[in-house]
Amino acid sequence: MTSFVSYECRDGLAIVTIDNPPVNALSHVVRAGLIDAVHAVEEDAAVRAVVLRCAGRTFAAGADIRELGQPPQAPILPEVIEAIEGARVPWIAAIHGTALGGGLELALGCHARIADPGTKLGLPEVSLGTIPGAGGTVRLSRLVPIADAVELVTSGKPIDADRALKIGLVDRIAEGDLLEAAEALARELLTHPMPTPLVDRPCPDAETVDWNSTATALARKARGAQAPLEALEAVRESISLSGRDALRKERERFLRLVASEEAAALRYAFFSERNAGKSLAAIKAEPADLSHVGVVGGGTMGAGIAVALLLSGTAVSLLERDEATVAAARQRVLETLQASAARGAITLTQADDALERLTATHDYVSLSACPLVIEAVFEDVDVKKQVFAQLDAVMPPEAVLATNTSYLDVDALAETTADPARVLGLHFFAPAHVMKLLEIVRGKRTNDRALATGSALAKRLKKIAVVSGVCHGFIGNRILAAYRRDCEFMLLEGALPAQIDSAIKAFGFPMGIFAVQDLSGLDIAWAQRRAARATRDRSQPYCHISDRLCELGRLGRKATKGWYDYSTGEPQTDPAVTRIIEDERVRTASTVRGFSDGEIIRRIIRVMQQEGEALLAEGIAESAADIDVVMVSGYGFPRHRGGPMYMSGSEALQATDAP
Fold it and tell me: Where is the 3-hydroxyacyl-CoA dehydrogenase C-terminal domain (predicted)?
């Protein structure tokens, strides 16, 4: 045994415990300890059954990700699981917390499984660009209905204990103490013949799955990522072969995928998110109390922020202008909660509990009891300055004030208060209760307590925090504005909106840049351009196409026309837009040529990289990895490609003629 795996025997029952905090990752030392435990059991004639459990807050939550892509060290996980599966006595997995990836594969190698009620179980390997590599596809597909196996392996999403029991992934849910329940199950198993190992069980009927339509739907959802499709094929292959042959094939596929560029990019994305906003960890100041937070503005964004806070257990005071807008804001929060419940993200009870923590008001004084207030009114600097002046008049000096702005100068807003040090930016992404990214904007005078509060809020809301300095658009919107501007210049040079959007989607973005503008509304950026007109550098090129669309009232989906025509419901290319583009080409005497999809993508990524390099040089972003986190988590950059900064100079960027 090692210090990471302990073994004890009492009354013929062995208890094998993994203790590798914080998540009991199945690292080399743990695997070695488990093999030693198997040998000890086999040599101890007094042992009649084994309970495998984990100390701490979770069962084995998966492999040690730091070992992925490295030369494997024996014993590898498949060997450990095969040793347990082939043991002379039954092993029972006592599962709590999470059993993910290799952790669930370990449990599948046992002869029975019992779980705590709150347990989550899943095979998330596709999120790291690979598939289960220790028998997950083989054993799972011989234990649960094949459609459920396909869903678990290809989606990577975990399921709860109740669903696991329903589909047969676990044999029992523990009532009371998990270890005692596992011991009882072990003794019950001893009254029956030794269970047949999963790998030796018969294959299910593959005809219950329409493999072709499943692959088509999966490819559409994967947006260019290959791991989900490989996972589907692995399940299909596993039930067409004997268990032993299927294990060998699965391992070959796993090793090929784990060495792929996609897997490397996804590992980079994983660690980049884990390390995002690194400077926040060094702050020693105590954050403000987040049990009660004020939100000013009950529009779409303000209501979304309020919902995110309410679902985290925070009481919210939501402020609007008058009785009518207060009622509308409350209704907006209610509808957002109901929609979340309807799609299964929360329960109706959770929605009701959240709504009880909401107070809607039009009295600024009622916010004075909130240690943190987040302003989320219309994106207009004068309106926001008025809000901050009113907050400054009623809030106690220790309260932290935050602005949810996408572009505006946080320092200028802070200067409207008596103490700019307590002001920071908190740039949420819509919908705020769903999107995982939060840009924490550090003003030139923002103090550590305000930053600590932003960091604590991100953790409370389970969001990824990235720190940005103050500039127009911060990290994400500055890059977005740069590549959107260049896409419009490509229109002058010969491309068309539909071609650019098609290339962007083929690369892996959920939407093209022109479709995104139509969805958010062209008037927002138009207002910003008009506001900046007086200070615009006239020596720099400027594309007027978007301005001309706005002047014609083509403001996007809400006006039924923008870059596309939505009058029939679905976006259609519009000859009127093409004529405007052609007119501008003539007016600017542009040289027109053809573009390949690969050229479009390379140009977009290079613009992103150039703007990212400028953000780093100016000290706005703290690291290239932070920039990638922002673009992946907030702007739809395909996660399986790592991010624009990750792709800098890579072979993947050079090979984008076939995105």
Answer: 473-566
Taken in order 69, 268, 59, 195, the sign of the CA dihedral is negative
Question: What pLDDT is stored for residue 651 in this prediction?
Answer: 47
Instruction: Please identify, among 453, 473, 493, the residue that sits at the C-terminal boundary of a domain.
Output: 473
Task: Please state the rounded mean pLDDT for residues 420-438.
Answer: 96
Cβ-proximal residues to 233 (8 Å cutoff; 6+ apart), any chain: 253
Displacement of CA 348 from its chain's centroid (Å)? 24
| Residues designated catalytic | 105, 125
* DSSP assignment of 443-475: -TT--HHHHHHHHHHHHHTT-EEEEE-SSTTTT
Instruction: Supply the CATH number for residue 306's domain.
Output: 3.40.50.720
Say which residue, 649 or 623, is predicted with more confidence.
623
Q: Is the pLDDT of residue 1 over 80?
A: no
Task: Please state, in angstroms and as integers, the Cα–Cα distance from residue 448 to each residue in 274, 300, 388, 461, 591, following that order.
Answer: 21, 30, 20, 20, 52
Kindly report, residue by residue over 312-332, the tens digit of the pLDDT: 999 999 999 999 999 999 999
Buried b (16+ CB within 10 A) or exposed e, 413-422: bbebbeebbb
Residue 628 near residue 608, CB atoms below 8 Å = no
Q: Tell me what pLDDT residue 531 has.
A: 76
Per the listing, tokens 């954050």 go with 287
CATH number of the structural domain spanning residue 171: 3.90.226.10
463 shares a domain with 511:
no
Domain at 606, CATH number: 1.10.1040.50
